[in-house]
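Cross-posted from the bioinformatics board.
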Amino acid sequence: MKTEEAIITRRSVKHFDPEHKMTQEEIDKLFSLAILSPTAFNLQNWRFVRVEDTNLRKEIRQHAMDQSQITDASLLIVLCANLNAWKNPQRYWKNAAKEVQDFILPAADSYYRDKDQVQRDEAMRSCGIAAQTLMLSAKSMGYDSCPMDGFDFDQVANLIQLPDDHVISMFVVIGKGIKPAWPRPGQLGLDELVISNTF
Amino acid sequence: MKTEEAIITRRSVKHFDPEHKMTQEEIDKLFSLAILSPTAFNLQNWRFVRVEDTNLRKEIRQHAMDQSQITDASLLIVLCANLNAWKNPQRYWKNAAKEVQDFILPAADSYYRDKDQVQRDEAMRSCGIAAQTLMLSAKSMGYDSCPMDGFDFDQVANLIQLPDDHVISMFVVIGKGIKPAWPRPGQLGLDELVISNTF
């Protein structure tokens, strides 16, 4: 599917066929595309928790306003990020020339060190970018998706045993939609959303 | 261009043809696709500041480690978000049925009210998602892009006269690349990035 068509036809679908199973090949393809998403300083700070366990899905659903897509979609992905990914930047630059490493590695350190909010912002931005890669990839493969943040973040963190230096950004569910999304309910115009030079 | 090809061939390009001008039609298409990105509660909290003014570009470049793409790319977009978008949710749901509005509007209020970090996280997530829509749209239209957060956020906020209840998330520059990106410098494997059920 063409990129433009995937962007136009992607909608947040709430109802999925609980019987549909995606193949391992499809799942591998989705994640392989997701990790081509850009990250600042190439930190690859995202971690994708794929929840397959049926009971764990049911428990998460209880902390997500009982939304059926949590248990019915083929894939439930909890997008998390490692807040400390910046601490070992040489891992992500090992194939780069020495002069590139000599510039990038100290720059990453000074960008994040002792800056909790900057680390957290990076987590949310990176996961947002990767979420859209997942959703557009899914659409182009014939699947529907829904991004979600209507859940109890602390309870879900407990359930997935999230490490202390990681944070949850959002869920993305992917599967065979069985009911179309609502029509877009009230979209703003470009005249309000695109600002020229200054506010 | 197919979605998969756009995802695979999109790279963070640093060198752009300063003479290239995008047509108004191309620019309108890019932004029209960007605003089809999903947002929580359909808040459409992003604001896209398009910096056209040559002097303003030069000033921003001074606060962005003198990176040449700031002035040389055809488009410099400062992705911002309105932290208070949740305060008027009826605008975004005016075409929805009353029972949908009766559920969604109070839910949005209680999700964001008095929760500064939640509001900020939403800003970063939404802008991340929209940034990837912009970058993949650009690629499919034959353009290159670069996401950037290596700049002085406070100085740029002053320069674009950012309102107090808005926040900057990142830049996206778009244009005709004239030098390919570095080869990917050290990518992690799916075995590390995809976690099954629990950490």
